[in-house]
Amino acid sequence: MKLQNHRLTFGLIIALALFPFALSWLTGEPIDSGTPKFWQGMLAQVFILAVYAVSYDLLMGYTGILSFGHALFFGAGGYTAGILLKHAAWPLWAVVLAVIVVAVILGLFIGATSLRVQGVYLTMVTLAFAQMMFVLSEATDFREWTGAEDGLQGIPVPAWLSPTQQRLMFYFVSLAFCVFSYYLVRRVTQSPTGRVFIAIRENELRARAIGYNTFLYKLLAMVASGVLAALAGMMNALWNLNANPNMLATSTTINALLMTIIGGAGTLSGPMIGAAFIHLLGYGLNTAFGPRWPLLFGLAYVGIVLFLPYGFVGAWRSLIARMKAKRA
Amino acid sequence: MTQIFRMWMAKQRATVVTLLIVALAVMALFARFEAKVAVSVLLSGLTLGAIYFLVSSGLSLIFGLMDVLNFAHGLLFMAGAYLGYAFYASGFGQALDSNLRFAIAILVGGASGALLGAIMEWALIRPLYKRPIYQVLLTLGLTFVGTEIIKAIWGTIGYFMNIPAFFNANTPNCPSPSLFDFLSDHCSSILILGRPFPSYRLFVILFGVLAFAGMMILLQKTRIGIIIRAGVQDAEMVQALGVNVRRVFTGVFALGTGLAGMGGVIAAPIIGVNLAMGQEFLLQGFIAVVIGGMGSLVGATAGALLLGLARAIGDQLVLGGLQLPWMEQAISLSLSIARASTVLIMALVLLLRPSGLFGKKD
Amino acid sequence: MSKDLLCLQGVNTFIGQSHILQGVDLRVPEGHITALLGRNGAGKTTTLRSIMGLWRVRSGQIVFDGARLEALPTHEIAARGLGYVPEHRAIFRDLSVYENLQIAERKRGDLERALPNLYALFPDLKRFEARAGRHLSGGQQQMLAIARAMVAENRLLLVDEPSEGLAPIIVGAIVDALRQLKQHMTVLLVEQNFRMAAALADYYCILDEGRVVQAGDMAELVVDSALTARLLGAV
User: What's the ipTM?
Assistant: First the structure.
């Protein structure tokens, strides 16, 4: 079973790597224009969102911390990258480091404040922090740097990574980013630290009674997930060539929740599937229904919360378990 | 005697602390500004506090009684404002004079908030009492859906709601020299220490005070109030005494969302009717209850008042330019900075006292 | 034996995945006190909570005065005439003594009718009528919890560990109160303090690991000290 899973993942990665070439061959269009280019873009966005979803899963699905402020990290990553590239002309490697540093600092600060409270208090407090950043991103005081409500436009992305000129390169970088993040988080969740995360989710008091400093572990989860989300935000800014207040809005947090829950919290692969599903569905609904698609989107979310609480992967697993039970 | 005093102190400590903070803020205000400016900042703070109270009281009661953190509370605030406005501006409404129309609009806002809240609790939240996290996820999703519906009906542009005639006269005698004169001339502003202050905002303060008094009477003096207060502590036991708690849940949910819906209409002439108002006031409501502590009406009120004062003082500082001792010249900032800084106040309270000022450590 | 007011047959209750009550059969004769005995974790509290509908029964019957209870919501079960005195003296700490009693009214006039009798039984409650529940002593809180269950016209009281954590002299007062109750009420009493249970109860019923292992006349159990020791451990 385990080996099979490995093979499946590996095969999927190969398939995704070959995908642009296959599509170019199938459609007969050159690889850097038309349909192949468009779908490289779609999938690159899916990869970025998948990392964002996985980062949320680490926090919510594995450690059981229900934060409503995840957009804060996503947006912070985008804005940090944008501001440093545009106004300071930093090289990309330094920007990546800076994004990580900013995310660690934010994670420590928000974690230290919000993790003092439990349950729904935490959701309120994290939402409040994210909302504060949202308000600040729109503040006219920093228009010079952030572009206020218009967002930070025209981020100069290094030529070799330009999502418009070097689409294929961007595709592979996003894919590598996604695969790397997935393996990193998987390693973490399967490590002793990851087991403490799960113990905290299952029963924090017990984890504490065994002798773990649960606060530190939760802080670690918050920081780690924040760093990943910020990197995803950075990639998103590179893709869009801009960073805007919408990246910090509550809808961005809802997006993370949606992808995680649709796919199945605490499964890693689930949220990634969720990310693909949501992004492609959003695209489909957008072309079909135009500006009303967010409404359908929200209704789908409510339906899933009510009727499919463990997501696709959860439903799939319980189906398999039931079939096995029947066979036995 | 000392024991009774100590018991009284233990009970009132939060109130004392709140009053102390308020007193300090007021003293700082009077030290920094002229008396007439300080008073009008204070009144602005009370106005905001009254609106925050209409949101935070329901949030706090609903959470206290049924452990549901209602992320859709801001949505119902906004829905109340839109529906109240729709009535106020509709053809049918135009036949009535603006005061009566406004009074009915408040009722429309309250009734729609209450009705939507009751339906929401009954149909969607009730099946999820065994899965509390999903309640939160659900109410967040409902906010999203509801906002989209409002957007589909009323579009993305905001609306202005005119102040009713009772508070909107503009004769040569205006502003009214005193509250007493206002009752005959209905000026849009009243002179307070020689500085005009919008009369409608005084009405908002009055409305907030009345709502608070009404809620206190309901909670302290009626049977339903006793049930609510008991239920906040132990809903199961209330049920075991033969009370249909589920029905009380729905009722309290409707009461809370009804207050929020009314709040939306009350706030509309000041802040307008727009798609951002729900989020904004939900957030302020959260901050108020986090400051005050959940499950206590007095806490929600204190939180709302402190937050309102903080916002008013912050706005005044920001607009007037901020000059700290080491600065060469005052820097001027936008209101966003004042809005964002309220979150830091909340963070500060959490660091000092995680359960909020009036929160009970259980 | 007189007629059974309450009768449980094959009651199974799960809490989460744990099978707590595994087919409990229990009879509570009208007009008497029945003591539900057993070690910690035997399922005594779960039995009371199952009767009140606070835990849902997965299978089995609960019959009260000829009517099935197990499918009813808690407030309707209470309305049939069951009073519940939960463990740990679960009174409403933020309410005054009077309000604690007031909330137990099921129909208008209940309190007015019951109050003189309750205050005679527990004079402390009258003295501290206006005091908040949290400022009462442990014994007073227990008296309030019992009094609260007597406000409405109940026919059966379910009392969970009334002596828990109380000083002997206060336990004495509570025994007196329960003894007076017996004259017009049926009681199902969960009690760890065997001496107290023996002094009060007419019948007993012993639970072990979610099953009834022994039931009968209290008088017989008291004389048979070997049996008591075997069933309940050292007394």
Answer: 0.85
